[in-house]
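Structure ticket #2291
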Amino acid sequence: MTDVKTVALVTGANKGLGQETVRRLAGSGWLVFLAARDRERGMHAADTLAGEGLDVEFVELDVTSDESVTAAVKAVAGRVDHLDVLVNNAGIGGPLLDPADMGADALRELYEVNVFGQVRVTHAFLPMLRKAEQPRIVMLSSGLASLTHAGDPARPEFGFLSLDYASSKTALNMIVSQYARALPEFKVNAADPGFPATDMNHHTGTDTVAEGADAIIRLATLDPDGPTGGFFDRNGPIPW
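Resolution: structure written out below.
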């Protein structure tokens, strides 16, 4: 077993926000497991960061597969005896369809990753998180999940129709609330990265990846007096 002070695992971390989150957490002297479903890309990303002198290890993890998640837990448990921080970053965007044109199958495919995948990974790693002194879970949400903002004609979210993606993140926010109340010894929060330029939006975002990761890093590094059961962007709390 590796004797380390702080251990984190970040899903969907071979690029974009996930990789930036791994870089910054490892830059604080943490051991960070870079989890990705694509072995080749994940190993390349982990090797790149390790080459920068960071303590980063790759673990193969497909959030849609029970077998893959179980194997990932076993791999991490073979290296460390606890997990301080879980960042559920893995997610996908759906097709830009009018809500009236979207069927249940398209919705189900996206929910499998953005909702069920987050629960699958969290449930599997709970035993390791319970061994930490200050366990923290960060769920990557979106400003599009805010029902308050979606109902405000003055907000940009009002005009952005995304039945699958937006609703999946709203569901995830309630999952955060449920976990936070069920696990009072944890810090469980939802992070809104804003609109960073990533592959998901074909690099049309107006924020940098570093700016997008700010809220994630803040919630991953909360002290014992930090909030739980909340929804935050890089500037602070945002409405549900």
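Closing remark: The two ends are 41 Å apart (CA to CA).
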